Automatic annotation (TrEMBL):
Protein source organism: Streptomyces monashensis
Family designation: Belongs to the glutamate--cysteine ligase type 2 family. YbdK subfamily.
Record EC number: 6.3.2.2
Protein name, per record: Putative glutamate--cysteine ligase 2
Enzyme's top EC category: ligase
Matching InterPro entries: GCL_type2/YbdK_subfam, GCS2, Gln_synth/guanido_kin_cat_dom, YbdK
């Protein structure tokens, strides 16, 4: 069975006011003091962000338990240096990013200018094991039309700089301003993939392989494909759902490749429209159907994803988990809908942040 692990980026905030706090270095220093060999936390582009990474798992219950433990540990360490963690993909209240002291991040700030400030956003990246670059590229080619549906399920960023953006996942719109971000054309082979990456590096527009910000890519560090479309999810159970569905998508794509079934030939232009539509509406209204690229009610498209991955979900023992989690998510709404519900009740974006701190910490 394929392993899957996730990386979650969390926002560091004042526990009372909700104001973002650039304390990631202090949090990491404290974590290392507690455990010199810790590999859970990493710094990110801005000091108001902290990344945590799980180990790879085959069992979704074990993955979910580690996500919950990791969030609680992040909350504990952050609390010791005077802040809290919030699983928010964008900060609802106005914020200016404090760049982390790192040569690579300084290069990005110089190269991309004011656009860099828009990247104070928190995503969730899932790593799913593949056997080879050949299988990995075949998977990337076949995942493309389904990735907007994953984005819609995870949508958790309706507010930005003190305003309701009208989007469910505004994080993805901010992130798409990067020169290498977004959907990709068909690569066809490992040679095609690596040739495109080499050409991008040679252009000088990006600095290294880590700045190949495709929606899904081959990992440079691990024998995995890395799916990067999801917002960090407000609830840990939504992260587990995303991980289960992404693994099932990878397994389904690999089986299709081995069976000689070709990938859908949708253009990048259509895929960008599907990505925009998912970011705009989340699970409210419609999504573009991955097969036809025509509008269809979002719940029907989500059910089509379950049907598409049904065999892989069954073989991994994740059918009941996925169906139950999808049903709950469709009833309750995404993180974006929950955030808007909090604002309707309390009337304050700062209270939205502090309420999401409570969700994050369980």
């Amino acid at each position: 069975m394929r392993t899957v692990g996730v990386e979650e980026e969390l926002l560091l905030v004042d526990p009372d006011s909700g104001e973002p706090k650039a304390l990631s270095t202090a949090v990491l220093t404290r974590a290392v003091q507690d455990d010199p060999g810790q590999d859970l936390f990493q710094l990110e582009l801005f000091g108001q962000m902290l990344e945590l990474a799980t180990h790879p798992h085959t069992d979704m219950a074990e993955l979910g338990a580690e996500i919950v433990r990791s969030r609680k540990e992040a909350a504990r360490v952050a609390g010791e240096v005077g802040c809290a963690v919030a699983a928010l993909a964008t900060c609802p209240i106005p914020v200016t990013g404090a760049l982390t002291a790192d040569d690579r991040y300084r290069w990005m700030a110089r190269r991309y200018g004011i656009a860099t400030q828009d990247w104070l956003v928190c995503g969730c990246h899932a790593h799913v094991a593949v056997d080879s670059d050949e299988e990995g590229v075949a998977v990337l080619d076949r995942l493309r039309p389904w990735l907007p549906v994953v984005r819609a399920l995870s949508a958790n960023s309706p507010y930005w700089q003190g305003r309701d953006t009208g989007y469910a996942s505004f994080r993805s719109r901010l992130w798409s301003r990067g020169p290498s971000a977004g959907p990709t054309e068909l690569f066809g082979s490992p040679a095609g993939y690596h040739r495109q990456v080499a050409d991008m590096l040679a252009s000088g527009v990006i600095l290294d392989h880590g700045m190949v910000y495709f929606d899904a890519r081959l990992s440079v560090k691990y024998p995995t494909v890395e799916i990067r479309v999801a917002d960090v999810c407000l609830r840990a159970e939504t992260t587990v759902l995303v991980a289960a569905l992404v693994r099932a998508l990878v397994e389904t794509a690999a089986r299709d490749w081995r069976a000689g079934r070709p990938p859908a030939g949708h253009s990048v232009s259509l895929l960008r429209l599907a990505a925009w539509h998912a970011a705009r509406s989340g699970l409210e209204g419609e999504l573009l159907d991955p097969a036809t690229m025509l509008p269809r009610p979002a719940p029907e498209v989500v059910r089509a994803l379950l049907e598409h991955t049904g065999e892989a979900l069954s073989d991994s023992g994740d059918t009941a988990l996925a169906e139950e989690a999808v049903g709950e998510l469709l009833d309750r709404g995404t993180g974006a809908r929950e955030q808007r519900g909090v604002l309707e009740r309390v009337g304050s974006l700062r209270e939205v942040v502090t309420e999401c701190v409570r969700h994050t910490q369980g």
